[in-house]
């Protein structure tokens, strides 16, 4: 099997024949032994094991480490948006940078469908090639990035992941009882690598049965014919608890063969959620995400509100808890909020752009489809109404924290004198400056931003206070033509 394209070219100094490979001191070892050794080395040296994974240091990651050291296949069990796929995709980090395999050309009996271990080939073609060439057998190398493959369960057929009898080879005269008649599926092709199956409960029963031997005996059987391959592979699965635990979705014997179940979770603290939100929202954007010609400055309370919306959604009686609320909700809302603030800055030529509560008026475009309504609890509400109720609850929660901590009741008195204030995402910051000629000294202390010196920051603070007072039922609100009017 020829090496798949990789971004990491094979170092020229690596051995190119079996003789040179043996002389180099290389020893064959299983995938799980390889993972165990490299993980142990990383643990000893104190390396970051899962870069970019936040909030799992004392919960999920220790369980993964135990599973690898135990040599277990793993199931990542958690709701959507809990980094299950990301964790699985990081496991190849603990593989060797390159492993050798027999460089069998297609001209030799059609080539080998797997990356054969030079010391222990598993196919008839591999064994014949080694017997013919001996220590002169050519060697090439397989990179760790190419040794990982994954598949989404819905629509997956037996032939896709395990294999099938190849009609074309039968027509050429191959016997159905010989391996030459087989088309190899993705799992046997990942021999000496890692295979991941996402959404296991959606996998067809026939395919689940086909996985029994792979997990227990580490071999492949196709169509009941006595053709077996001693596979060397780590198998990973992901699943949502609501479907995985539902009777009949996953065959009990398959559950029994999975060595370790890794339970994931949403961030246990809001600050961790904010850290994830900021990290993921900036991916691929570089310094221009918040910088550039129209830089964006985000008050802490705006970040807290965005993340609190996701937290409130996960607890809401209107949302189906079984499906979960992905971290992608916070990430998408955060990016939309920043985009709205930047659009205002561009239109009005204001610098810096500072997000306000009115910028969250557009969060429906980012939130729609990222949560599922509970049909029993929300049968009289539209998705937009549910989202608005969740956002109002989040604003109230964050505002109450600032009131408790900093005594913002003092600020509330300013708006309790019969005033009427209009706000909106396209109103200039100077509009808010006129509303408050003098900023109460407590504001700068309360919001950890300087509302006194920057009109854009002041505008954001004004909207936060007004929205918080409205959420606390201390003032009323009306909405018209993209603007919101607060009054007492």
Please give the structural blueprint:
Elements lengths: L17 H6 L7 H15 L14 H11 L3 E4 L6 H7 L7 E5 L21 H10 L5 E5 L4 E5 L5 H4 L1 E3 L1 H5 L10 E3 L1 H4 L3 E6 L6 H12 L16 E7 L1 H4 L7 H6 L2 E4 L6 H12 L18 H16 L11 H22 L14 H5 L15 H24 L2 H4 L7 E5 L4 H7 L5 H7 L7 H17 L4 E5 L2 E5 L1
Parallel strand pairs: 1-8, 1-9, 4-7, 7-8
Antiparallel strand pairs: 2-3, 5-6, 10-12, 11-12
Helix pairs in contact: 2-3, 12-13, 12-14, 13-14, 13-16, 16-20, 18-20
Task: Give short descriptive properties of this protein.
488 residues; alpha/beta; Rossmann fold; 5-stranded parallel beta sheet; 3-stranded antiparallel beta sheet; 12 strands
Structure description:
This protein is α/β, with parallel strands linked by helices. It folds into two domains: 18-263, P-loop containing nucleotide triphosphate hydrolases (Rossmann fold); 270-487, no CATH class. The chain has 20 helices and twelve strands. The strands form four sheets. The protein has a five-stranded parallel beta sheet with strand order 4-7-8-1-9. Strands 10-12-11 form a three-stranded antiparallel beta sheet, covered by helices on one side. It has a two-stranded antiparallel sheet with strand order 2-3.
């Amino acid at each position: 099997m020829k090496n798949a394209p990789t971004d990491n070219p094979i170092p020229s100094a690596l051995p190119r024949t079996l003789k040179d490979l043996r002389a180099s001191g290389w020893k064959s070892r299983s995938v799980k032994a390889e993972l165990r050794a490299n993980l142990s080395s990383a643990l000893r040296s104190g390396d970051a094991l899962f870069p970019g994974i936040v909030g799992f240091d004392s919960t999920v990651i220790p369980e993964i480490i135990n599973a690898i050291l135990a040599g277990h296949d793993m199931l990542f069990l958690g709701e959507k948006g809990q980094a299950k796929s990301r964790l699985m995709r990081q496991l190849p980090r603990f593989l060797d940078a390159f492993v050798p395999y027999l460089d069998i050309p297609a001209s030799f009996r059609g080539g080998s469908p797997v990356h054969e271990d030079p010391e222990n080939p598993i196919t008839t073609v591999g064994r014949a090639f080694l017997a013919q060439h001996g220590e002169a057998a050519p060697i090439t190398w397989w990179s760790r990035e190419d040794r990982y493959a994954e598949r989404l369960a819905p629509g997956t057929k037996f032939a896709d992941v395990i294999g099938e009898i190849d009609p074309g080879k039968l027509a050429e005269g191959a016997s159905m009882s010989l391996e030459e008649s087989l088309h190899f599926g993705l799992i046997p092709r990942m021999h000496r690598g890692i295979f991941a199956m996402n959404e296991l409960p959606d996998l067809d029963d026939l395919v689940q049965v086909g996985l029994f031997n792979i997990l227990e005996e580490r071999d492949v059987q196709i169509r009941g014919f006595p053709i077996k391959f001693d596979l060397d592979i780590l198998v990973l699965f992901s699943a949502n608890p609501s479907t995985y635990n539902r009777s009949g979705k996953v065959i009990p014997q398959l559950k029994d063969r999975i060595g370790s179940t890794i339970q994931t979770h949403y961030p246990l603290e809001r600050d961790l959620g904010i850290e994830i939100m900021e990290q993921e929202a900036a991916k691929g954007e570089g310094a221009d995400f918040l910088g550039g010609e129209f830089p964006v400055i985000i008050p802490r309370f705006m970040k807290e509100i965005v993340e609190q919306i996701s937290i409130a959604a996960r607890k809401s009686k209107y949302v189906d808890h079984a499906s979960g609320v992905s971290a992608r909700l916070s990430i998408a809302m955060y990016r939309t909020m920043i985009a709205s603030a930047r659009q205002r800055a561009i239109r009005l030529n204001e610098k810096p752009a500072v997000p306000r509560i009115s910028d969250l008026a557009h969060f429906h475009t980012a939130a729609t489809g990222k949560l599922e309504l509970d049909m029993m609890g929300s049968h009289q509400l539209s998705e937009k109404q549910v989202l608005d109720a969740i956002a109002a609850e989040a604003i109230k929660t964050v505002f109450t924290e600032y009131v408790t901590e900093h005594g913002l009741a003092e600020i509330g008195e300013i708006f309790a004198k019969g005033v009427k204030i209009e706000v909106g995402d396209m109103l200039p910051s100077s509009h808010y400056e006129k509303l408050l000629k003098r900023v109460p000294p407590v504001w700068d202390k309360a919001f950890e931003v300087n509302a006194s010196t920057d009109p854009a920051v002041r505008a954001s603070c004004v909207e936060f206070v007004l929205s918080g007072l409205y959420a606390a039922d201390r003032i009323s609100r009306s909405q018209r033509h993209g603007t919101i009017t607060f009054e007492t």
